[in-house]
Design a protein that fits this description.
It is a single chain. With 232 residues, this protein is an alpha/beta fold. The strands form 2 sheets. The protein has a 6-stranded mixed β-sheet, sandwiched between helices. Strands 2-1-4-5 form a 4-stranded antiparallel β-sheet, covered by helices on one side. The chain has 7 helices and 10 strands. Bound molecules: adenosine-5'-triphosphate (ATP) and magnesium ion. The site of adenosine-5'-triphosphate has 12 residues, from strand 2 and helix 1.
């Protein structure tokens, strides 16, 4: 069965009477483990909303969402945050690293929340993750001492640290120049080649070109869903 399955998912933001926005209208979607998916569409088309619902940061207004065979729509909030911590990793446009904290400690943070590792285990695993993204020589650097691409690689290492079933990234290259963009997308490609499931949002065709599948949204609906045959 699919890792992710949505049936008739609708998301309505309600900012008071007569001020409803249907950000997602009727989303039907299946994503299998091991896929590498780009979500595209104009500003306001619902991309971030879709990522928030898929990543349990927000809930659907109606419809059904199954993750790893579990119906998410019926789970209480504490079960949801448990799944979020254990099964998904997030990467954001603005990196969202702690400024006064070294790369290695930023990466360790999700393990701290999981409360099942010793300090030595956390340090070892964080280092391993930073090696995976090519930052073995930057373990003790603070975010301000790293380039944008390097900061995003720290964020990717952090997203990987609990060994999630899937990584979600919302405009992961939105703040990066073209060289850092290639760096970050090269890492995503490598992670997917190793079997990791990745779903990311982008505005740029060049960046979407790395994905194996491209989903396009318009006004809260999927208007195209194709395999990317001219992959980077
Ligand atoms: N918290 C909110 N409250 C009310 N409306 C919202 C909220 N978040 C998003 N919206 C509306 O929902 C629609 C979809 O927004 P969303 O952020 O998902 O778009 P997006 O495709 O990610 O756009 P962008 O490319 O600019 O990031 C927009 O019309 C937006 O104004
Ligand atoms: Mg957005």
């Amino acid at each position: 069965m699919a890792l992710i399955k949505m049936e008739h998912v609708r998301k309505v933001y309600n900012n008071g009477e007569d001020n409803e926005v249907a950000a997602l209208k009727d989303i039907n979607l299946e994503i299998q483990a091991g896929e590498f998916v780009a979500v595209m569409g104009a500003s306001g088309s619902g991309k971030s909303t879709l990522m928030h619902v898929i990543g349990f940061l927000d809930s659907a207004s109606s419809g059904k969402y199954f993750f790893d065979n579990q119906e998410i729509t019926e789970l209480p909030a504490d079960a949801l945050s448990e799944i979020r911590n254990q099964k998904v990793g997030f990467v954001f446009q603005a990196f969202n690293l702690l400024a006064r904290t070294s790369a290695i400690d930023n990466v360790a943070l999700p393990m701290l929340y999981a409360r099942k590792y010793t300090l030595a285990q956390m340090a070892e695993r964080s280092k391993e993750m930073l090696v995976q993204v090519g930052l073995e020589s930057r373990l003790n650097h603070h975010p301000s001492e790293l380039s944008g691409g390097q900061q995003q690689r720290v964020a990717i290492a952090r997203a990987l640290v609990n060994n999630p079933a899937v990584i979600f990234a919302d405009e992961p290259t939105g703040n990066l120049d073209s060289r850092s963009t290639e760096e970050v997308m090269g890492i995503f490609k490598k992670l997917n080649d190793e079997g990791r499931t990745l779903i990311f949002v982008t505005h740029e065709e060049e960046v979407a070109a790395y994905a194996k599948r491209i989903i396009r949204l318009k006004d809260g609906e999927i208007v195209s869903d194709i395999l990317n045959t001219i992959r980077k």
